[in-house]
Amino acid sequence: MQPAPIAEPGATMKRSETLDLQWQGPASPPLRIGILLLPSFSNFGLASLIEPLSIANWLAQCNLFQWTLLSVDGQPVPASNGLLAGAQAGIGEHSEFDACVVIASFDVHRHARNPALKAWIKRQAAFGAVMVGIETGTELLAAAGVLDGHPAAVHWDNLQGFQESYPRVQACAQLYSLGRKRLTCAGATAVLDMVLSWLDRLAGGNLAREVAMHMLIEQVREPQVQQAEGYRRNLHAQAGKMGRAIELMEQHLEEPLSCEAIAERVALSRRQLERQFMQHTGLTPLKYYLSLRLARAHNLLQQTRMSVAQVAASAGFGSLEHFSRAYRAKFGCAPSNDRSQSLSAPVMRQPLGHDRQPLAI
């Protein structure tokens, strides 16, 4: 997946200590990027990384960027969608890069226990490479200790577990972060925003804008833009008193409030609160509340090493028996059997209900 060499190079770039690149003459070498793929990585994330760089090479008529696909053992790597990516090298070959990108999605805790992988990440960071984490690739950078004290953009579905596991990292729910020699991205479409913003810094805004034009991207989102959490955020923004009720639920997961207490705090009767929840979510307030608590438990079980008892307490369950019964009813397995965020593991679906119409305030 290397870009084909071009016989007549035009303007290329020169690296500085901070990797802010400037247009220079044809003798300047391309930026060398090592892209480490972990099993079940996002093929969309890989394409979103490579395509803007490939278009930049084409427009500049020279190799501004040169990349190498890596795997831990040098063997092909399956993506989460089943496609197989051929690696050009393994991490044991001791190549040095100007930038190293780690792309991962599932089973990140298993990968984070690999000492060779963490040693490779630490070595590349020590050599001065810009370290880039995409999706849960950011967690692998954190596990190797190279994100301590740095901001990190983490997908909202993994943010709670990440914060629990890596308190020294400044994790946030923004789309991506562009720090000094540290780039992180929550994943999905935000990868395109991050790469185009990075390209803007490296090679200037004109090239970045032209690449965006060819990709039919009208506007690149800023890094600090907050991730949308889908339906729940819409409820917060549009549902008025019901949105406030949901905020109260989210603020009191460890010590749940009664339905009567929530209704009183938002100035509704219990019947009015139940009617609004049924109308917009298809769930009673208590069932919606339970889904929020089980969502926290599900994330902490899959994304941290907290004990089942600790997770139960964090989700507001005073009885392990009650917790296990509610968890099994929701996910079809005992909490102790749901400790890995893999493709085959239970999934927490969002309670979208049945109302597709805008919510009345």
From TrEMBL:
SMART domains linked to this entry: HTH_ARAC
Region of interest called Disordered, as start-end residue ranges on this chain: 335-361
Give the originating organism.
Answer: Pseudomonas putida (strain GB-1)
GO MF terms here are:
DNA-binding transcription factor activity; sequence-specific DNA binding
Compositionally biased spans, kind Basic and acidic residues: 352-361
Q: Where is the HTH araC/xylS-type domain?
A: 243-341
- Share an example GO biological-process annotation for this protein: positive regulation of metabolic process
Q: Which UniProt keywords apply?
A: DNA-binding, Transcription, Transcription regulation
Which Gene3D superfamilies did the record assign? Answer: 3.40.50.880, Homeodomain-like
Which CDD domains does the record associate with it? GATase1_AraC_ArgR_like (cd03136)
Name of protein: Transcriptional regulator, AraC family
Which domain of life, per UniProt? Bacteria
